[in-house]
């Protein structure tokens, strides 16, 4: 990425080939301003912060943005991934170990909430743990929003992925929570429609008609009067 190359050039004091001499001088003039130096110092301090015992933030995404990683996961899965899956992708190595303490703690808390509040109706495995068949991404997202508190309107673990829900009035944390609630309502409505469809099918079978006949040729509410004159 261009920004990464410029950052490396600044650190090594070596101008990238795609930057002109004049622009390079302008960049250094900006970087040496009091405001830019203050921002740089603050950002450096934040990156090295112990975060209340969780240690320095670490991830394995390299220079790839969180939004790009989320997009690739969507292309692979065919649907939007759960936030916990995105956090795992960014902070967990292939051997299953986390490189970031806070990410590990958050995932464990979220999974604990989901399993306790949504016990599976399916059979349990040999260790007696709940099957994940009945646990949906929305359930995990809701638990994530309860565990992770927004800081300055942003949520830990999402990076640029949360900016796709940017709202000029509401911060990402508010928009994401609202979106999760809407998704839950859609799922509930879908379930209600499915149940009504099943009830309609059962009623039609009891009357000896098909559901299509019942909708295209509905039976009259009352039989026609035999006293009506015939034409």
UniProtKB/TrEMBL annotation:
Q: Where is the composition biased (Basic and acidic residues)?
A: 47-57
| Source organism superkingdom | Eukaryota
Enumerate the residue ranges of region (Disordered).
Answer: 35-59, 211-231
- The biased composition feature labelled Polar residues covers 35-44
Q: What is this protein called in UniProt?
A: Transposase Tnp1/En/Spm-like domain-containing protein
This chain's source organism reads Brassica oleracea
């Amino acid at each position: 990425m261009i920004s990464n190359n410029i950052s490396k050039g600044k650190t090594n004091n070596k101008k990238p080939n795609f930057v002109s001499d004049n622009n390079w001088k302008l960049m250094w003039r900006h970087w040496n301003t009091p405001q830019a130096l203050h921002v740089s110092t603050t950002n450096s301090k934040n990156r090295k912060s112990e975060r209340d015992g969780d240690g320095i933030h670490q991830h394995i995404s390299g220079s790839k943005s969180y939004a790009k990683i989320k997009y690739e996961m969507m292309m692979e899965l065919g649907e939007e991934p759960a936030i916990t899956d995105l956090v795992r992708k960014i902070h967990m190595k292939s051997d299953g170990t986390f490189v970031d303490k806070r990410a590990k703690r958050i995932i464990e808390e979220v999974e604990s909430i989901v399993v306790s509040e949504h016990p599976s109706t399916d059979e349990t495995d040999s260790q007696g743990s709940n099957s994940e068949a009945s646990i949906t991404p929305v359930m995990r997202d809701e638990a994530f929003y309860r565990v992770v508190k927004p800081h300055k309107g942003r949520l830990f673990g999402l990076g640029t992925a949360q900016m796709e829900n940017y709202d000029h009035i509401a911060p990402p944390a508010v928009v994401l929570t609202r979106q999760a609630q809407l998704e839950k309502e859609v799922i509930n409505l879908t379930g209600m429609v499915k149940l009504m469809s099943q009830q309609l099918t059962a009623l039609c079978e009891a009357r000896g008609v098909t559901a299509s006949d019942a909708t295209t040729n509905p039976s009259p509410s009352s039989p026609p009067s035999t006293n009506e004159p015939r034409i």
